Amino acid sequence: MRDAAAGGARLVVFPEGMLSGYAKNPIQDWGEVNWDAVRDELEQVMALAAALKLWVVLGSAHPLTPPHRPHNSLYLISDQGKLVDRYDKRFCSATETNRFYTPGRDPLVFEVDGFRFGCAVCVEINFPAVFTEYDERGVDCVLLPSYPVDRIFFVKARAYAAVHNYWLALSVPSECAELMKSGLIGPDGEVMGQVESAEGIVLNDLDRDAPELDIALNKARPWRAVAGTGEFYADAYVTDPRSTEKTML
């Protein structure tokens, strides 16, 4: 957090399960977790966020009332050091749901310095509706803390960024660095920056006026929004037997 703030960052994103540990690797049972220690660390992060004037998105399990399983969550901490919201992973894996976590219900959209952010977690990369929903909600960037298990994950992330023409930020733990690196993908699907070593941070700006993003942000995204409704094609359809007869040579 101090390194990010020193580099001029206004928002820092940490991996899935970073604070509590992620199930089922390394957490095998929630009895292994000292929830008082997790709460204490969370409060320290909140205090540091206030001192640095830095927004924080922090992955952690969030305990519920026993015997309910925790949520797999992202804590949203403001630059005033307040816990202002929380994203609870909605599309948990079968193992997560059957053994470790309670799924959440709601998306999360928030704003920092005029940019709108949405949140998703890891395996939700396999559910296109999550990323379409954030597009429809007008986000500029989707934050995707993860604990990836395969390399195709990164391909999917680039595809969503390019299809929806928004930025997509990835944050993964160091033990997954051989599969995918933490970094930022641009609205054109191109990688803007990555953590090149196993550990570290990457700093990037969201710049709506970047010339290389003009097509993605100012042409492709608004056109696709109209085209997706069918309105764009309304006057282009014709009545023609050579169109309607599908077996005609």
What does this structure look like?
The protein is α/β, with parallel strands linked by helices. It has seven helices and ten strands. The strands form two sheets. A six-stranded mixed sheet has the order 5-6-7-8-9-10, with helices on one face. It has a four-stranded mixed sheet with strand order 1-2-3-4. Helix 2 links the parallel strand 1 and strand 2 (55-62). It is globular, with a radius of gyration of 20 Å.
In short:
By secondary structure, the chain is of the alpha/beta class. The protein is about 30% helix and about 20% strand.
Summarize model confidence as the mean pLDDT.
95
Q: State the order of secondary-structure elements, H for helix, E for strand.
A: HEHEEEHEEHEHEEEHH
CATH fold-level assignment: Nitrilase/N-carbamoyl-D-aminoacid amidohydrolase
Q: What is the CATH superfamily classification?
A: Carbon-nitrogen hydrolase
Low-confidence regions:
none
> Which strand order do you get reading across the main beta sheet?
5-6-7-8-9-10
Helix content: 25-40%
Strand content: 15-25%
Number of helices: 7
* Whole-number total of structural domains: 1
Q: Label the CATH architecture.
A: 4-Layer Sandwich
Top-tier CATH class: Alpha Beta
In total, how many beta strands? Answer: 10
Biggest sheet: strands, sense, closure? 6 strands, mixed
> Over the alpha carbons, how many angstroms does the gyration radius reach?
20 Å
The shape is globular
Straight-line distance between termini? 66 Å
| SS content category | alpha/beta
